[in-house]
Design brief:
About 75% of the residues lie in helices and about 0% in strands. The chain has about 260 residues and is mainly alpha-helical.
């Protein structure tokens, strides 16, 4: 059997392991989903009339849902960091190292499993947004596919970053704390308010972080707003974070165990 076949076989085994673990212990994923769902409910039903600036609550739902979908990705991938750190500290990774399996399959099993869980979480939160009144009547099939592709690429990028955070954390609690920026960054983006409503000195910080160009691209695809340069900035962020997260994770995983 070739090295590639072995890698695919072992990665599939690790993927099944992680999916079974997530199915048996769904509380972590559900708890992480509470943050974007609660923020969606809070900003629409409590602050919606005020935040809409007179355009109406339905218009604000359309504005906020793309940002909440990307916040869901950041929130859910915190669970990846916790899961990886738990595996490292409970000794299962050390046992895997002694077995005749492809080393990279351990990481790829975590990554693919996390991306699948994240996409399911995004679909669930999106369904809640639709139930609350979100509509995208003008988007074509290609635009929907592009939006889904962007969300999947974004999930992949931040999953690799979360894996690196989990590998570099001494315990699950530290991993959760280290991964908190993944859910805090959307709060200082254009997810809830337009950039031009922010203080001038703060606008460049909000504009050029990873979430804002992805949010604006998603709005453009689903709502028909102007995308401008945001699409390639979002893709550049995703590509850079994927490469960085992969190399960081691989370097930490290949270190001799302490």
């Amino acid at each position: 059997m070739s090295s590639l076949s072995l890698a695919v076989r072992d990665s599939s085994t690790m993927l099944r392991r992680n999916l079974l673990h997530a199915r048996r212990y769904p509380s972590l994923t559900l708890n992480l989903l509470l943050t974007p769902v609660m923020l969606l409910l809070l900003f629409v039903y409590i602050f919606g009339d005020t935040m809409s600036g007179g355009t109406g609550r339905s218009a604000y739902i359309a504005y906020i849902v793309p940002g909440i979908l990307l916040m869901t990705i950041g929130s859910t991938t915190i669970g990846t960091a916790v899961s990886v750190s738990t595996d490292m500290n409970e000794g299962i990774i050390a046992r895997f190292r002694t077995m005749a399996i492809h080393r990279s399959s351990i990481l790829f099993g975590h990554v693919v499993g996390s991306v699948l869980q994240t996409i399911i979480s995004v679909i669930l939160v999106g369904a809640i947004g639709v139930a609350m009144g979100f509509r995208s009547t003008d988007a074509t099939v290609l635009e929907w596919l592009a939006a889904f592709g962007l969300l999947a690429f974004f999930a992949l990028a931040f999953t690799w970053i979360a894996v690196g955070m989990g590998l570099g954390s001494p315990n699950a609690e530290a991993a959760s704390n280290n991964a908190m920026p993944l859910i805090l960054l959307p709060l200082i983006s254009s997810a809830f308010v337009p950039l031009n409503s922010m203080p001038g000195w703060f606008q460049p910080i909000a504009e050029y972080q990873p979430f804002t160009p992805a949010i604006e691209t998603l709005r453009g695809l689903l709502l028909g707003t102007e995308i401008g340069n945001n699409w390639w900035i979002a893709l550049a962020w995703c590509l850079a974070l994927t490469i960085l997260g992969y190399r960081w994770s691989k370097a930490q995983f290949n270190r001799d165990p302490k």
